[in-house]
Design a protein that fits this description.
The structure holds two protein chains of two kinds. Chain A is mostly helical. Chain A has helices at 7-20, 28-48, 59-74, 80-102, 108-127, 153-175, 178-188, 190-195, 200-226, 236-249, 256-282, 294-308, 312-327; strands spanning 144-145, 148-149. The radius of gyration of chain A is 20 Å and the shape is globular. Chain B has one domain (3-285): ABC transporter involved in vitamin B12 uptake, BtuC (Orthogonal Bundle), CATH 1.10.3470. The chains are: A mainly alpha, B mainly alpha.
Chain lengths: 328, 295
């Protein structure tokens, strides 16, 4: 990462551009959905990219907050900020319990434990009454904020953008704080961080809870936007999806997860069309079913990324720029 | 009729047997995971997908080629083992010098592709597979009715698991394998082809998963997703048992199957989650796992 230029200008331009998108004819719901997943991936990246912990259970926090916020908004009729806050609190609490258990083992065991715990929560959501089981929690009202009716997509768009920018700023501050530096040192050399006197387990747990809470903010906002929370939010494939987004965009970069989320969501939306096109071109009927088995394509991207493309899109671009600079 | 805690004895024993059947699958899969992890330092997420493939191969063999259960019980592990050789040579071998997590991610990708392929052809509904003729019916033991096929699954799994244990702990081939796990460089210096040993270990591990898949085909529905539901439980089993000991893996797998079966009798709502709860408790009490060594 270059330290010479102020990255704030770049981020400012990026978000200003996103603010203009609905005026340029972009479909607001789609962009809001991308922003929610981008925030989810940024929260996940805080762990994998900056602390070196691979959580394979982040869907648990997305799901806990999605159901939590949905229940608070629909059943209790809480105002929007409180509903979102309740969702975040539910995710943070889940993160505290899961984190306290998972950090007792490191490396690959950590990933397996987070995956197993999130599967446990999935079965809980499947059986519990308040989640609506297989049907999910439907028709969550958007409500009002400061007298403004959020049923209006445009208004909600700017609220979601504000939430996203606020959370992104928070993540930026965390990563670039002394606390973030300690996290990076744990990623680079855990034994050394311990020997320097840092309570590594505690730092890991705080990072885990922060990441869970931010993932929860993404889940709560997603419920507000789409008006429903379902088991898809909490299932293990969603944990895999957020890993893929972060990997494709670039682990350990600030905007990589955003790029990755955009690429993967767009791909999921377009893959059925691509399948139809391929079926028309080649005459092979099998391609028609491609939209139904997205996992085939996401799996191939996973394999490709791990073998040849580990820096991700943003990471590769940064690497090229660095090489050119040092070369000239 | 005899009752224990208000549960009729035959029902209790029936669930216990079903628990042992599930436990046999946990044991065979966690054993394979442990052996592969020992040699390759990779947690093979694809283990569940390859187990599913074993079950599907059994079904396809009968459906398309008319090959019966017994032929496929032998053939499916060979086919999946050969696929394992390909996976290891083409994909996994590039990852050994990298962080463990890339191995998990790559095999996760393989899982998604495999499941996607089977889903695109067969959808998500289950394919029925009949119990082979010789094992149909049940035996009346006096105190319970024992379904022959379930008894066969438990016996066959335990025999195979013990055979693997004997192979690794009691033969010279196993000694080389264990030495390779401890110090591959030194073993290589003795003139042993370590890369080939790694390839064969992976192939053997996934063949074991395919064998379990064929055993499962007549009991469970053969679906594209049958493996991923299982592999997550097996991960919990591996965390509980620790991957240090072969016999430990087998015992933990069988034991947790029994615990799950008993939960189904006394508190069915928790039967899906009980293994994860046990994992949480073990993490609190003995973080390294029941048979693991503290580092």
């Amino acid at each position: 990462m270059s330290q010479t230029k102020n990255p704030m200008i770049g981020y400012g331009l990026l978000f200003a551009g996103v603010a203009l998108l609905p005026l340029l004819g972009a479909y607001p719901i789609f962009v809001m959905k991308v922003m929610c997943y981008a925030l989810f991936a940024c929260a996940f990246n805080l762990l994998i990219g900056f602390t070196g912990l691979l959580s394979f259970g982040h869907a648990a926090f997305l799901g806990a907050a999605a159901y939590g916020a949905g229940h608070a908004l629909k059943v209790w009729g809480l105002p929007v900020p409180l509903g979102l806050a309740f969702g975040v609190a539910a995710a943070a609490l889940t993160g505290l319990v899961f984190g306290a258990l998972a950090i007792r083992r490191s490396g690959i065991y950590f990933s397996m434990i987070t995956l197993a715990l999130s599967q446990m929560l999935f079965f809980f959501f499947l059986q519990a009454q308040f989640t609506g089981g297989e049907d999910g929690l439907q028709a969550v009202p958007r409500g009002h904020l400061l007298g403004l009716n959020l049923e209006n997509d445009q208004l909600l768009y700017y609220l979601v953008l504000a939430i996203f920018v606020g959370a992104f700023w928070l993540i930026y501050r965390i990563v670039h704080s002394p606390f973030g530096q300690v996290l990076t040192s744990i990623r680079e050399n855990e034994a050394r961080a311990t020997s320097l006197g840092y309570d590594v387990a505690r730092f890991k747990l705080v990072a885990f809870v922060l990441s869970a809470a931010l993932a929860g903010l993404a889940g709560a906002t997603k419920t507000l936007v789409l008006g429903f929370a379902t088991l898809t939010d909490a299932i293990w494939t969603t944990s895999g999806l957020v890993i893929l987004m972060t990997l494709v965009g670039g682990m350990g970069t600030m905007i990589g997860p955003i790029v990755g989320a955009l690429v993967i969501i767009a791909l999921e939306n377009k893959i059925g069309d691509a399948g139809k096109l391929l079926a028309d071109l080649t005459g092979v009927q099998w391609f028609m079913g491609l939209g139904e088995s997205v996992s085939l394509v996401t799996g191939l991207i996973f394999i490709l990324c791990v073998l040849a493309f580990r820096r991700g899109i943003v990471g590769e671009i940064g690497h090229l720029l660095e090489k050119r600079r040092s070369g000239s | 009729m005899t009752e224990i805690f208000g549960i009729p004895l035959p029902a209790l024993l029936g669930q216990l047997l079903l628990g042992l059947v599930n436990g046999s699958f946990y044991a065979m899969l966690s054993l394979g995971l442990a052996v592969i992890f020992g040699m390759l330092n990779i947690i093979n997420f694809a283990h569940g997908a390859l187990y599913m493939m074993g079950a599907f191969l059994a079904w396809m063999g009968l459906e398309y080629l008319g090959l019966n259960y017994w032929v496929m019980l032998l053939l499916a592990p060979l086919v999946v083992g050969a696929l394992g050789v390909l996976i290891e040579r083409l994909l996994l071998q590039w990852l050994y010098k990298l962080d463990h997590l890339y191995g998990l991610l790559l095999t996760f990708g393989i899982t998604l592709v495999t499941e996607g392929i089977f889903r695109s052809f067969y959808g998500v509904s289950g394919q029925p597979y009949a119990v082979p003729e010789a094992l149909q019916g049940a035996t009346n033991l006096g105190f319970m009715i024992l379904p022959n096929y379930r008894a066969w699954v438990v016996v066959a799994s335990i025999v195979v698991c013990l055979a693997v244990w004997a192979l690794i702990e009691k033969t010279s081939l196993g000694a080389t394998l264990r030495a390779g796990t401890e110090n591959p460089k030194l073993v290589q210096a003795f003139g042993i082809n370590v890369p080939r040993m790694i390839t064969l270990t992976y192939a053997g591990g996934v063949a074991l998963a395919a064998f379990a898949g064929v055993l499962a085909a007549p009991i469970l529905q053969v679906t594209a997703l049958m493996g991923s539901n299982l592999i997550i439980v097996v991960f919990a089993v591996v965390v509980i048992g620790g991957m240090g000991s072969i016999l430990g893996s087998i015992l933990t797998g069988l034991g947790l199957g029994v615990v799950e079966g008993l939960t189904k009798v006394f508190y069915p709502e928790a039967s899906n989650t009980v293994v994860f709860v046990v994992m949480a408790i073990v993490l609190l009490v003995r973080p390294a796992g029941l048979f693991g060594k503290e580092k």
